[in-house]
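Sample log: RNA polymerase subunit sigma-24.
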Amino acid sequence: MTRDGQAPAHPGGKSQDAMETTARDIEAIFRLERVRLIAGLARHVGDISLAEDLAQDALMAALGAWPRTGTPPNPGGWLMTTAKRRAVDLWRRRRMMARYEAAITHEIEAGQSDAHAAIEARLDDTIGDERLSLIFTACHPLLSHDQRTALTLKIIAGLTTEEIARAFLSQETTVAQRIVRAKKILRDGDVAFEVPLGEERAARLGSVLEVIYLIFNEGYAASRGEDLIRPQLCQEAMRLGRILVGLAPEEAEAHALLSLMELQASRFKARVGADGRALTLETQNRGLWDRLLIQRGLAGLATVTRLGGEDGVYALQAALAAVHARAAKFDDTDWHRSAALYDRLLERLPSPVVALNRAVAHAMAFGPETGLALLEEIEEEQSLAGYAPLPAAKGDFLMRSGRMAEARAAFARAAGLSGNAAERAFLMSRAEACG
């Protein structure tokens, strides 16, 4: 402390608190720019791992410079320029990729405000979004299905291997190995980082749709952390979905996915109470639902019908979301239609998670004992062994059946499996409500 009792200033005259605040601001900016930065760098260096390293170097440079100089007017351009400088230095040391050095160095040394625009323009692909270019590259046919999905969730959504493992119902070590192998395959295969055209684009579209929805799902029900919802992930997924619809306007499943995400996102404001705890569909204030997003979602479903895609995987899920969107109150929900839609979805997309959701719909339509019977068919499924929604659903069915002691145990087990603080608190409150 100084003689007047003030905290000593750091070099540049800033206090410890100010320095820490600046660091937090810089990291927040980096999170917003991270994907575009990696995508742009990957197109030049042809290596996702190297692009990640260069982006991280740029962050460290910003943490060292911006507290002294202030945040630049174009922070994204500053980070890109700095990362490219590091790339040039690396190429010089390794004497690699000499044909790129002169052009990139010229862009950097120009030092004019329009230099950043030139760099970004050069990075833009035919549809003007590097992130989508990176997704299509990560969904290259050289990669297996699991490798494509894991890599894109890691790079685009910034998820940890733990979060991706939850989405896959898989082991963390398995996911980590998939990501490492996928990066190596793309690097060794000299794959171009671009949005493909024609039949090649159509062949990758299914994987791209799946990845975008997984990004949305992680935002809609965060697997880790304090918050139930991570809206920035959902917004990014919907933004990419809208770009895809513009890219493939006659693709019914692209419209269906966007419709599904908009209908789900319409409930954001009502999903969490004032105390931060999750609220079920039954207890949500539907007056808080976003009517504009619902209108957009229903309009998207109408487009799906016009295109003849009602039986698509995303179309069926969007139709399920629309069942709730159309119900003015919980008691108006058409559970029989929901159960029928889940029957069709399970035929199209056989999976333990779909079977679990189907059991919930049937329990609401035909009674909790029906739901319990359907759960018995999937309780031994190994992939659901650590999946919190399974005991949570069982607890709900047991509670509705009046079997309170068993319900309490099921909710407590679900809470123990959950890695999200808000979800865990909600499940414990349900256990306590069982007496």
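Observation: Residues 16-123 form one domain.
Observation: The CA atoms of residues 193 and 433 lie 53 Å apart.
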